Amino acid sequence: MEINPCHRTKARKKLKSTEDEAKQYALKLLSYRGRSVKELKERLRRKKFPDDVVSCTIGHLQRVGLLDDKALAESLKREALTTKFLSQYGAKRFMLERGISREIIDLTLSNDETEDINNAKRLVEKKMKIIDALPAEKRKRRLSHLLLRKGYSFEIIETVLKNKLKGGMA
Questions:
Q1: What is the pTM for the complete model shown?
Q2: For position 170, what pLDDT does the model report?
Q3: How many Cα atoms within 13 Å fall on the side-chain side of residue 115?
Q4: How far apart are CA 8 and CA 4, in angstroms?
């Protein structure tokens, strides 16, 4: 007969208080921003909570709907593509850093090159307002480096900058 580590008995009062502390700490972390299961596990372990308490806390938060990697992935995708102007590859890196699994990322992101091109164009237009006074070669170099840092491929960078140069950027 296996004992459920989440089951509370009188003999486990110490565990009860530890579980409550772990839940309170997890709720505190979730109140700041959404977190993945992996992130929350790491933070609870860093606070020296026992593994059985960590798994009980994670399970409880998933059951009540406060911890959902799929919903977090959708939110991070929106943030990465619309706010940070990252490419699909950049968004994938961003989500991996936040502890989202590759399977969920693959389900969430589409490898749509037209979306990447449109995102890159919007970013270039936004940055052109700032660097418009610079010489053409310097603008091109800064924009290409910016797009590279955001995770865009060389082909997309070349396409976007060629169109912008023809469109009056130079």
A1: 0.80
A2: 42
A3: 16
A4: 9
Would you say residue 134 lies in a domain? yes
40 Cβ contact list (under 8 Å, min separation 6): 26, 29, 30, 58, 61, 67
Pair (101, 73) in one structural domain = yes
- Burial of 91-116, coded b for 16+ CB within 10 Å and e otherwise, reads bbebbeebbbbeebbeebbeeeeeeb
CATH code of the domain in which 20 resides? 1.10.10
Strands (E), 5-127: none
82 with 103, same domain? yes
What does the pLDDT look like over 60-72, one tens digit per residue? 999 999 999 999 9
Place of tokens 């418009």: 132
